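User: Here's a chain of 255 residues. Predict its fold as tokens.
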Amino acid sequence: MTRLASGLALAAAALAAIIFLPPSFLVVVACVVTALAAHELAGIIGPKDAISQWAGVVFAIVTCVLIAMAPLNAVVVVLLGLALIAVEVLFRNRTIQEAATELVAPIYIGMPLGLLVALHALLGWRATLLLIGTVAVSDSAQYYSGRAFGRRPLAPTISPKKTVEGAIGGVVAGTAFMAIAGRWALPVVATLPLALAGIVVVVLGIAGDLFESRLKRVAGVKDSSTLIPGHGGVLDRIDALLFAAPAFYVYLQAR
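Assistant: Prediction complete.
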């Protein structure tokens, strides 16, 4: 019951924000989500000292804002990242490997969430909901398909409960949702390209889920945090979206 209640509350809040908030407020919301997820990530992968942790969080927020303003600001993000690594290595006596961990949050979290805001500005709330809805439908279909038909593990060393049958169910359901709902959200795009985009989005979403599961397994933690009752942390809720959003944005820009 707790999981259901918190899930419904999150869904309602996200829906209201996407539909009713102006772009400037959406940037603020994205920055808050980025900060929470980046802080959780820092607790999973390090660095362990507080200064480096907060540097990564702040850089992730800056990245989110820059990408939301203009995706081509990715070049600026790269230059800022190189400058940060140089400062860490030259003045804080850290190795390149240690300093590079601070770039994970900006690239892994800040960029995708910034692109999500940019997608909203480019094509409106319907396209944004189409992406999020596709990921959500796929995630639910994976769970129920896996429970009903799951036999073969998908990635037993990373996420033992995920099955090939569940993944297939997620791909089918997510692709169908993208193809059908996409005719409402993106009427200028034909059904076949929408279906192909759906396959890419769902497969990347599964990869994103497994990626975060791998990070947690290496760190020996079950959830990224306990912030959301019954659901874990913010990063646990957006892991699939982080991999799917950039591909969907690029697809819509290239069409």
